[in-house]
Every structure is written in structure tokens, then in C-alpha cells.
Amino acid sequence: MFTGIVEELGEVTAVEILDDASRFRLRGPVVTQGAQHGDSIAVNGVCLTVVEHEGDEFTADVMAETLNRSSLGALTVGSRVNLERPMAVGERLGGHIVQGHVDGTGAVIERKPSENWEIVKISLPADLSRYVVEKGSITVDGISLTVVDAGPDFFTVSLIPTTLDLTTLGHKQPGDPVNLEVDVIAKYVERLLGARGEQPGVPEAGR
């Protein structure tokens, strides 16, 4: 379980292409502190398992399913990545509940700089749009963000200087892919209401 508060901007130092997977070596001095084999680290919002750890670098295997459903397949040596260790019990939940299970990918459509922040417009797959609402939470490349505007095939977020400086969103350009994870609570509510034969927003008869 993660919070979407990126701990550091890491770097891909090696990529090994396997038959049905890829092995990445990543540098992250903060997230590798005390890291052990089997630990979880979110890489651009994807929960990966530490296979090896040496110094300030770790390796992680990424299976074909994850490569196909996320933007990790586009990473190359030198790519910058958002890194976060799992939340410890008892710590503050600075962002929102993030599982590290990517629901789909979008792409940066446009950026509108302002004096103290920047508005970024991101494309949204049609099957995810129902989970994205104005002022709701969404995870973009592992970053917990608040939705400013929500459209049928896009949403916008407002980024403060800290986010621009310390995450990949400060460097993404129009056309660049991003990983998206919608709020898991919305998916559970939809599933529960569906099991009861209810429609979200429609009160049950007699109530």
C-alpha cells in the first residue's frame, strides 16, 4: 500500500529484455535504504518487487502483463522514474490510498504554465472515465493528485513547483505516456452496488 507521495526521482540504469518479461536496474538512494529482497517499491506507480539490492541500486522483474498495461515498457537507460516505498502502519497518509496496480495509461495532452503552478491535461481511457470526478483523487505515474476538471476522455491536474521539481511530471511533454490508477474506493462502491442491483446515484425504492 502506498500514498502517492513520491520520495525521490530515480533513474533507470539498465534494462534486460527477457522472453516474456524485462528486468530493470534502478538507482534510488532514498528508497534503497534498508531495502531487502522481496520488498515492494512503486516505480512510476507500479508496485514492483526488489529482486536484488546493491548500494543505491535495485533490480526488479516486470512481467509481460505489467509491461502491456503500463508505460514501463517505454523506459530506457537514463529514464527518470518516481519512486516510493510502501506506507508503514501508523504513518500519516499524506496522499490517498494507492495500491500500485495500474488501471491503464494516458498521455499528456498539453501543459499550461502559470506564475506559481502549471495545469496539465491528460488523456483518459473511456473505461476509466466514470471513476474520475472533479476534486477527486487520481494517481498519475505514482503521484497522488487532485482532479481539477474531468471530461469524458481527459482530466486536468494543477501542479505546484515542488511536484514539478521532484517528479517526472516536471519533464513530461505532450504525447508522453503516464500510468493511471483510479481511486480504488470508487471501484469497490460500483461493484457492491452492482451486486445489489442498484445504480450509482439512484436511490433504492422505498427510501
Automatic annotation (TrEMBL):
Lumazine-binding repeats lie at residues 1-96, 97-193. It is an enzyme of class 2 (transferase). The keyword Transferase applies. It catalyses: 2 6,7-dimethyl-8-(1-D-ribityl)lumazine + H(+) = 5-amino-6-(D-ribitylamino)uracil + riboflavin. Signal peptide: none annotated. Pathway: Cofactor biosynthesis; riboflavin biosynthesis; riboflavin from 2-hydroxy-3-oxobutyl phosphate and 5-amino-6-(D-ribitylamino)uracil: step 2/2. Gene3D superfamilies: 2.40.30.20. One of its GO terms (molecular function) is riboflavin synthase activity. PANTHER family: RIBOFLAVIN SYNTHASE, RIBOFLAVIN SYNTHASE ALPHA CHAIN. Catalyzes the dismutation of two molecules of 6,7-dimethyl-8-ribityllumazine, resulting in the formation of riboflavin and 5-amino-6-(D-ribitylamino)uracil. This is Riboflavin synthase.
